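Entry under discussion copied across for reference:
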Amino acid sequence: MNLEQLGWNEFFEPYYTPEADSERIVGRIACATSQTYLTYTPQGNYWAITTGRMRYLARNSADLPAVGDWVILKPTGGEQQGIIEEVLPRKSKFSRQAAGEIVQEQIIATNIDTIFLVVGLDGDFNLRRIERYLIQVRESGANPVILLNKADLHGDSEHYRVAVESVALDVPILLLSATCNQGLESLHPYLNMGQTVALVGSSGAGKSTLINQLIGRQRQAVREVRQDDSKGRHTTTRRELISLPAGGLLVDTPGMRELQTWRVEGGLSETFAEIEDLATQCRFRNCQHESEPNCAVQEAISEGTLDPKRWRSYKKLQREAKFSNSRQEKTAALVEKEKWKKIHQVMRKRNKL
């Protein structure tokens, strides 16, 4: 594939000119293991490692290449092998708080144009989870599209679309059935040449089945969901960039049963835009939206124009974002201090030579 087919566009042009570098080549990370990276390039596929300097100076895993990244690598003596010397700036980045007690960003994929949030119309359907995903999708810089999968399970699935419209303002919502190959034509505008799409959602939502239909063959393993709670087992165990017959690129991701938010800034306001707008109409500028007189938020709840469940979800996510951002800022300060410590150590070693 050439650079344009791999997703190269005008955003990346200021950072690197392939024609002006005869010793190095530009490529895109298709798959990442703990030590090596499968990289797609116009010259073929390379298995590459990062330089020791890059690994040494990395503050955390977010500073290392991730699936979707554009990198500059230098081919080595081995056949189709190379060393990654640089990661180009990211156009978009979908990430979450890594599991565990350590405050650390886990990048799911980068340089994505559109994120398909796949929701199964079975026990997987949950409006509160959709809200949480939408916050992170909007933070990523990619465009969200919600896919309501398994529409074949219901004679009339339009009421699901209406329900999602109430929490996903101005977001395209598409009904489909990956198993029955229904409604997939509505995805074509997002899968044009050079466009990159990522699939996210819970285990059992039908992402692997959808991928098999899009590529036209049984590439991904598919498992049945449990009948009692509609939860599925992980069939995708790693993130991978897949080339589609139509010319687009797709990032498959493992199902996520938990999505802890990371760096919530504008995503919360965008996802709950109608609540943020109501808050500006309150009588008091510092209204807490509890028992104050002439509170537009409480009036909307009383009048039935604002779902109290959505209001509680907003408050919960707002508290979570505030707490999470505070922890991340403290950790970031410590990490930055450690980074400069490493840089100074490298500089001192050079001066002694």
